[in-house]
Design a protein that fits this description.
The structure is a single chain. By secondary structure, the protein is mainly β. It has one domain: 6 Propeller (Neuraminidase), CATH 2.120.10.30. The strands form seven sheets. The chain has a six-stranded mixed sheet with strand order 1-2-23-22-21-20, with no helix packed on it. β10 and β11 form a beta hairpin. The chain is globular.
Length: 406
């Protein structure tokens, strides 16, 4: 066992967990204008709830048909109102529109720095029939017309001094018909203190011309581990660290910070409006899984130069290992307003097990659980479909559309 694995395993400790509560139990109160909904058990019975089909109704990228595109680095998949798919891939920085039969009917983008080209493509969403994309490397938003042509581009303006962040803002989603949701960018510099790092992340909005509005919330960011010396800095994920997830729906921002079992809803105009809490036992991490994680991280660090290996291992040790999983590592809001929270099971188990999602009603009550297939990454949930990317045993990326039975 590597040094990092032994050390990470050595700091694991036990924790206690409590009992459940009667099915469907929840309370709701208003406190200082904030709606607080606390659930102690799901309302769905053991034989009720939603189900996701395992056999896809559409599959793209498997090579099963002539002309089936090879998809590498799928950044986003969206099912459009007409049943077509929009797929963005970072390997070639290309947007593809795919029809109901799986055929590519239009492409846009490509690698470069000219109009409509990208170095770091990501999809923000739609305003009307126009697609908004973000290039994190070039720092610009591109508005793409329905025919795939770049309609215009803009950059985010400078926030006022009260809203300034050390590493700036980046858009994460379309908030509503004329605004983007912004989140502060994380970063680190040489000679900073090594060890556990969790920055406070400001949330703000921007217009579709790039004007940055005031900060309406500040939330804990994703936990990371910083290894910093005079001549290099490395930022890595904390093993079993809390992940902050942000989503936008109906003009509001939804935030989960991972280390507490709740979702917070923010209105950019008025701030915090609701908290949806789940009062349930924490899921404990087994020593065997901590050992597996330690082996993996130790092997990774062992491939680096000795001084880097020592710095990263030391930083990981100083950060420590949690004894319980974070509550969630993904947050989605579906087309009906239901909130989907993916339960965090750690990096090792995530490659081997089906994923469980805790489902909340639009009003915050705990409904139950939905399970998605092993190695299937959900990108979108509509009223009756789950859209995402399936990784095969050979690590091939296949876009799949699965039927959702509500």
């Amino acid at each position: 066992m590597t040094r990092a694995a032994l050390a990470l395993l050595a700091i694991a400790t036990a924790a206690a967990c409590g009992d459940g509560a009667p099915a469907g139990a929840h309370t709701a109160i208003d406190s200082a204008g904030v709606r607080v909904v606390t659930s102690t058990a799901p309302s769905w019975g053991p034989d009720a709830g939603w189900r996701v089909d395992t056999v896809p109704e559409l599959e793209v990228g498997s090579g099963a048909r002539a002309g089936d595109p090879l998809l590498i680095g799928v950044e986003a998949v969206r099912r459009l109102a007409d049943g077509q798919l929009l797929v963005a891939t970072t390997d070639d920085q290309v947007l593809r529109w795919i029809d109901r039969d799986g055929a590519v009917v239009r492409t846009a983008g490509g690698a470069g720095e000219g109009p409509g080209e990208y170095r770091g493509l990501s999809v923000l969403g739609f305003i009307g029939d126009s697609l908004l994309t973000w290039d994190g490397r070039l720092g610009r938003v591109t508005v793409v017309a329905p025919d795939g042509a770049p309609a215009r581009q803009f950059r985010l303006g400078d926030p006022d001094s009260a809203n300034a962040t050390r590493y700036g803002f980046a858009p994460s989603a379309v908030l509503d018909g004329d605004r983007l949701l912004l989140a502060g960018v994380r970063g680190a510099a040489t000679n900073e203190r090594s060890g556990l790092r969790r920055d406070t992340i400001p949330l703000a909005t921007a217009s579709t011309t790039g004007e940055v509005g005031p900060v309406f919330a500040r939330v804990p960011g994703t936990e990371s581990v910083v290894a910093s010396t005079a001549d290099f800095v490395a930022v890595t994920e904390r093993p079993f660290g809390a992940t902050t997830a942000v989503a936008a729906a109906d003009g509001a921002a939804y935030v989960s910070v991972g280390d507490v079992d709740e979702v917070r809803r923010y209105d950019p105009a008025t701030g915090l409006t609701a908290i949806y809490r789940l009062d349930r036992p924490r899921r404990l991490i087994s020593p065997a899984e901590i050992e597996r994680q330690g082996r993996r991280r130790g092997a990774q660090a062992g491939q680096l130069p000795d001084r880097v290996d020592v710095a990263i291992t030391s930083a990981l040790l100083s950060a420590g290992i949690p004894t319980a999983y974070p509550a969630h590592d993904r947050l989605l809001v579906d087309a009906t307003g239901a909130i989907w929270l993916r339960e965090d099971i750690g990096a090792e188990r995530a490659l081997e097990e089906a994923r469980s999602w805790t489902i909340l009603a639009p009003t915050g009550e705990w409904l139950g659980r939905v399970v998605t297939p092993v190695r299937f990454e959900v990108h979108q949930v509509t009223r009756d479909r789950v859209v995402g990317v399936q990784r095969t045993a050979d690590d091939v990326e296949v876009v799949r559309v699965l039927r959702l039975r509500r």
